[in-house]
Amino acid sequence: xxxxxxxxxxxxxxxxxxxxxxxxxxxxxxxxxxxxxxxxxxxxxxxxxxxxxxxxxxxxxxxxxxxxxxxxxxxxxxxxxxxxxxxxxxxxxxxxxxxxxxxxxxxxxxxxxxxxxxxxxxxxxxxxxxxxxxxxxxxxxxxxxxxxxxxxxxxxxxxxxxxxxxxxxxxxxxxxxxxxxxxxxxxxxxxxxxxxxxxxxxxxxxxxxxxxxxxxxxxxxxxxxxxxxxxxxxxxxxxxxxxxxxxxxxxxxxxxxxxxxxxxxxxxxxxxxxxxxxxxxxxxxxxxxxxxxxxxxxxxxxxxxxxxxxxxxxxxxxxxxxxxxxxxxxxxxxxxxxxxxxxxxxxxxxxxxxxxxxxxxxxxxxxxxx
Length: 370
Ligand code: BGC
Ligand code: ZN
Fold this sequence. Notes:
Distance between the termini: 13 Å
Order of helices and strands: EEEHEEEEHEEEEHEHEHEHEHEHEHHEHE
Number of strands: 19
Bound molecules: beta-D-glucopyranose, zinc ion
Strand content: 15-25%
CATH superfamily of the largest domain: Medium-chain alcohol dehydrogenases, catalytic domain
Number of domains: 2
Number of helices: 11
Shape: globular
Radius of gyration: 21 Å
Structural class: alpha/beta
């Protein structure tokens, strides 16, 4: 079968032929790959800046945003049957007995750093015709989501952030209706999303769907298609060409949550200075290491203390976020079908894998296997 592989030493990315994987354990499921999404991480790996092949291998099969259809199940599989749709988690446990997170199936919070990630770190990925893995790393997807379920994995980033934000904000002495309480929300739910790429736009939809007044801050102008798209799901688009960072509060009002999806560290710390009392600021981007830059640490630290602010980084996702993503995608399809479908901007057959891996055009580009 065909697979897309990166050869870091040769500095090459090419289609290779490999044997079809087979079920060898009772708990395994074999999927026929339908769609694999391409993201910034894949492009970084294909630029040889990130990613590690499995031990002893000269190449890494990439792809970590996968929707598949079950074609075969092992004798001990209870959660799947032939014909079901499934998405896969990315991270696999470190296997170190002392790591409490991995032992609990929460390798997204691994302590040792020795976790692996399919298609990214020491494990082959999903950009291939068939995938075999344990049922515990798969989540069932309803048929109605066939056309958009490739967006589940990138949406899990926002879902994990939302879960964490709700948990953190339970520290507040009132309970916001969005969190299941009865008090008036007041200023507690103005969310600002930084960036209008796939992670930002999916995040904005998730925050809007969770009841936040949601603002998306990005470079494109306010008449652009992106801005139109943001407005189509009830969020407000704010262009950095019109509103500089120090005017954000004038435009947005008190900022209660920031969901950063740009990987731009300097901009992010500038925005951090603008957030309101009790705010939570969530980083999701992984910036390249471009050297140091100056930030106003006194103002930031002073604000964070005097306003009880929280700064949070989040990576990867557990089952809870995958389930939330599947539930939310269903909501998006009902409420904003055109918007959610428009996030998938192009689909390529496997032989044209180079196109989406090299270009940054569109929002979410997908390689379609089946
Ligand atoms: C993936 C995560 C992964 C992270 C770091 C992201 O693109 O969505 O699952 O943990 O990269 O490798
Ligand atoms: Zn990704």
